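If you are new to this repository, start here. Below is one unmodified record pulled from the training split, so you can see the exact layout before writing a loader.
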Amino acid sequence: MKALLLESPKNFQTIEIDSPGDPGPGEALVRVHRIGICGTDISGYLGKMPFFSYPRIPGHELGVEVVEVGEGVDNVKVGDRCSVEPYINDPNSYASRRGFPNCCEKLEVLGVHRDGGMRPLFILPARKLHPSTKLTYDQLALVETLAIGCHAVNRGAPTPAESCLVIGAGPIGLATLEFVKLSGAKTIVLDMNDGRLDFCKQTMGIEHTIKLGDSVETDLRAITDGHLPDVVIDATGSSGSMSAAFGYVAPGGGRLVYVGITTDEVKFRHPIFHRPEGTLLCSRNALPGDFTRIISLIEQGRIDTVPWITHRSSFTELPEVFPSYTRPETGVIKAIVEVG
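And here is the target side for that same chain:
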């Protein structure tokens, strides 16, 4: 069967691979129907993702169908439509045993450290499947992106009495915004792209948006009654943005959360963050409960994923169109690959 291999940065190849065979105990064979393209895929394509290994079959935002299950599998059955939790952890690791499988020392992410879903069929641990009887494959493919945002907001824990700034209105920033809104906190978004800020206003109903410029701190104080945001979540992956974010945190225990990743140095002058008694947090991947919660929220109509999908591609044409997804002028919020 055919698969898409990212052989090296900017070098997609269509290859022939063997069928996966039968699932073993605790495993499931799945058919891939939809693949979401996210910042990790784009960074991997551009050679800017620090954890990406080549050659690699990408694809970790997946809407799949269960084709066959191995011995002992009881959480899913043949025919189930599922979202995939792509963080393959060792259940016996120290972090996993403490309830943090997202931080497992041996963690391998599908499509990053091990081959992912840009192939028609593959086998994975059945415990990583989250079924829904109501969601479409498009919706299921978006659950993982939303889970990243959900976990980041949980780390910052904004309350209805607080304000929360999300820096970066790409897919991860938008996912984060969904859960900031659900928290009841005053929601603010900062970005340099007018199109993305317009999307936040018109589609997501965000009242307070700021375009990156010389007056960010002044604009923030105007929105937050003179102080700064209680929670700041940086979803850019830009070392410059992440460094500047230290100066946006409110006094009295403000929290700064990094959900974006950079390989560059992040710098700040210590008094800027010491003075407000700030707390720095990092948010890595997501937890199984995040997937369960998100599926329920979409089923209830509390999260609408339809406006997110701005671009579509077939499996065969993806290598040709993928470079366009890396260019801001293309206007991609979320691209979906249709496999079958």
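Two things worth knowing about this chain: The domain at 2-131+305-338 is CATH 3.90.180.10 (Quinone Oxidoreductase; Chain A, domain 1). The chain has a mean pLDDT of 96.
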